[in-house]
Design goal:
Elements (H helix, E strand, L loop, with lengths): L5 E5 L4 H12 L3 E8 L18 H14 L2 E6 L1 H17 L6 H20 L4 E3 L5 E5 L2 E5 L17 H6 E2 L7 H10 L3 H4 L15 H8 L3 H4 L4 E3 L5 E4 L23 E6 L4 E5 L5 E12 L9 E6 L7 E8 L2 E11 L6 E6 L2 E11 L1
Parallel strand pairs: 1-2, 1-4, 2-3, 4-7, 8-11
Antiparallel strand pairs: 5-6, 8-9, 10-11, 12-15, 12-17, 13-14, 13-16, 14-15, 16-17
Helix pairs in contact: 1-2, 1-6, 3-4
Length: 364
């Protein structure tokens, strides 16, 4: 038994999770590697060659590292639970006129649940992943903080983690930048791995074309949503679109029609297969309502609590006033915000610390 305990490391075969396993091994933990098969590219219907965390090459890469470092490695097939929950939600959200974030849902309900279940079965006290984020403690409560690398920070997609998950989780890459992690891979003797490219796609949409993915998952979708109208806020018909699920709030390109001035998707109405277009100023919102809230740093929000709210992963965030309303939070922006999309996550920050987050369901 190691002096630090036994840790289950999620290994995708990529550079971040591989360096995580190496670091935990070097720090004196007894490492057990696990690679989770979440998706089968052969059933996706996409045209792109199989790559990424679920490919055979990536699984073999993870296993090779485990063999080289002398620790156990397991492959776990979670395709059924992943597909039933994450992919079905992804499809149903677009069909409801919302824009989902499957990475948040997967982290919250699938990956950590699967990891904790296997950690218990393998007598692992901790789990570790290659996420760029940090875990801190306040009065016994765990919370996520930003990583040292602002370009790679993944705190936004981790707002849904429970206290139980955070109590047992470790993010060893949090204090490091991506170039430093690449250098570590090189120093460990993995020159090829240190140069490995990253994937920024949704894992189950290998060609990065969610519209084609929806068509493959929903029988007769094109016929079902054909003949919908673009309208302005006054209801004037501006043209015909391809179907409301194929558009997202804030979209400008790919509308398939010239309007004489820049126009953006400002609202999606699935009941009438209508997509509302407007000028950029019509995207501006004063606030948003957030449901399915998970609070991290505090058990309850103080009255008129101020935080910086991010409504997209690449959003810089806006100073806001938060009002807790049961399991919901009303967010009032102290500056105008564009492109607030139902289905996306709103994440609240106090400095570098994640106070909590939830799913956007309305704006005003």
């Amino acid at each position: 038994m190691s002096k630090h305990g036994r840790v289950l490391v999620a290994m995708s075969g990529g550079i971040d999770s591989t360096v995580t396993a190496m670091m935990m091994h070097e720090q004196g933990y007894e490492v057990v590697g696990i690679t989770m098969k979440t998706w089968d590219y052969a059933t996706s219907g996409g045209s792109k060659k199989e790559t990424g965390c679920c490919s055979l090459d990536s699984i073999n890469d993870a296993r090779e590292v485990a063999v080289n470092f002398g620790f156990h490695h397991f492959i776990v097939d979670i395709r059924n639970e992943f597909g039933d929950y994450v992919i079905d939600n992804f499809v149903s959200e677009y069909m409801a006129g919302r824009t989902p974030n499957p990475c948040v849902l997967c982290n919250t309900h699938i990956k950590w649940s699967a990891l904790l279940k296997r950690a218990d079965a393998l007598d692992c006290e901790f789990i570790a992943t290659g996420h760029y984020a940090q875990i801190n403690d306040l009065d016994g409560r765990k919370y996520i903080s930003r990583s040292a690398d602002s370009n790679k920070d993944q705190s936004y997609v981790l707002w849904g983690l429970s206290q139980e998950c955070m109590q047992r989780s470790k993010f060893p890459l949090g204090p490091y930048t991506k170039p430093e992690v690449r250098q570590m891979a090189y120093d460990f003797g993995y020159e090829e791995l240190s140069k490995k490219a990253e994937s920024f796609e949704i894992c189950f949409v290998p060609d990065n074309d969610y519209r084609s993915f929806l068509r493959r998952r929903v029988d007769g979708l094109d016929k079902q949503v054909a003949g919908g109208s673009f309208v302005n806020k006054s209801g004037e018909v501006l043209g015909e679109h391809q179907g409301y699920p194929f558009y997202t709030i804030g979209q400008r390109r790919g509308l398939g029609k010239a309007f004489g001035e820049p126009m953006f998707v400002t609202e999606i109405r699935p009941d009438t297969n209508t997509v509302v277009l407007g000028r950029v100023d019509e995207l501006i919102k004063n606030g948003t309502d957030v449901a399915q809230v998970n609070l991290m740093k505090y058990a309850e929000l103080p009255d008129d609590f101020e935080a910086v709210t991010k409504v997209r992963y690449r959003d810089n965030g806006t100073l806001s006033t938060l009002t807790q309303q049961g399991d919901k939070v009303r967010v009032e922006f102290l500056a105008n915000v564009k492109g607030v999309a139902p289905g996306q996550s709103a994440v609240f920050y106090e400095g570098d610390d994640v106070v909590g987050g939830g799913i956007i369901y309305g704006s005003f």
